[in-house]
Design brief:
- The chain is α+β, with helices and mostly antiparallel strands.
- It folds into 2 domains: about 10-80, Arc Repressor Mutant, subunit A, CATH 1.10.10; about 90-260, GAF domain (Beta-Lactamase), CATH 3.30.450.
- It has 10 helices and 8 strands.
- Strands 5-4-3-8-7-6 form a 6-stranded antiparallel sheet, with helices on both faces. Strands 1-2 form a two-stranded antiparallel ribbon.
- Keywords: DNA-binding, Transcription, Transcription regulation.
């Protein structure tokens, strides 16, 4: 995420609280421990607890008294239902994601770009019994890491890609050498040439994914469809077939979103 303007009073505290809120929502209904949240947010336990307690007082997060895990609060549902009227396109995407899962037999996903990350909004299971569980609703990845974020980043303007890589020199140390600037730029070029991204088990060994960008009316990649599965299901011949199917569904969804927002 971009750094907040430090000249704005309270900006740092708001940024820290927002970071914790995103981490809590990423944990889903299972919840997350104070230790894990503080570590992921790069905060001391006392600071994280103070901010989480403030968020809890406002109903934005909740804490299970038995497990002591933190999880999304009831106010998020109310806020989300209001924001959905403007931002939510999952209703438009749901049957397309389901069709993608049925036709490929793999797990299919719909993700949205949120600043420098992608957030999974929909997951639909395919019929193939062996599945990958790297991605589910609410999970976030930096752009360029998972197949959805790689597809989106590849079709952003060059100056946006340069700016993004400049903001995130930690990608290589956090996600491996394949996410260093040179290697990532090569994968972005390959994605543009192919039309869809390929993640050959770079997040979890043996778990492959492919992604295709979904565009808004102005031609900007704001969403992505993706498929994940086990490695042997993504051999060269089938990979090309999956890619064609994925692109067809992505084109269909882009057209539908553009038509709905006229």
């Amino acid at each position: 995420m971009e750094s907040p303007d430090r000249s704005v009073p309270g900006a740092q505290a708001i940024a820290r609280a927002a970071r914790l809120l995103r981490l809590v929502t990423s944990s889903g209904v299972d919840g997350a421990s104070l230790h894990d949240l503080a570590r992921a947010a790069d905060l001391s336990r006392s600071t994280a607890h103070r901010l989480l307690s403030a968020l809890r007082a406002e109903g934005l997060v909740d804490r299970d008294e038995d497990s002591t895990l933190w999880m999304p609060g009831p106010e998020l549902f109310l806020m989300g239902s209001v924001a959905a009227a403007r931002y939510d396109v999952t209703a438009l995407a749901r049957d397309i994601v389901r069709s993608l899962a049925v036709k490929t037999e793999e797990s299919a996903f719909f993700s949205v770009r949120r600043a420098d990350e992608t957030v999974c909004l929909l997951r639909e299971e395919g019929s193939f019994p062996i599945r990958s569980f790297v991605l589910s609703e609410g999970v976030r990845f930096p752009l360029g890491v998972a197949s959805a974020g790689l597809a989106i980043l590849a079709f952003l303007p060059d100056h946006d890609v340069d700016a993004y890589l400049g903001r995130h020199p930690e990608l290589e140390s956090g996600w491996g050498r394949a996410h260093g600037p040179s290697a990532l730029r090569t994968r972005l070029t390959e994605t543009k040439e192919r039309g869809y991204s390929v993640n050959p088990g770079l997040i979890v060994e043996g778990s492959w994914g492919i992604g295709a960008a979904v565009f808004d009316r102005s031609g900007r990649p704001e969403w992505a469809l993706s498929l994940t599965g086990v490695e042997f299901r993504f051999g060269p011949d089938r990979l090309a077939e999956l890619g064609r199917t994925l692109l067809a569904h992505a084109h269909q969804l882009s057209a539908r979103i553009a038509g709905a927002r006229r």
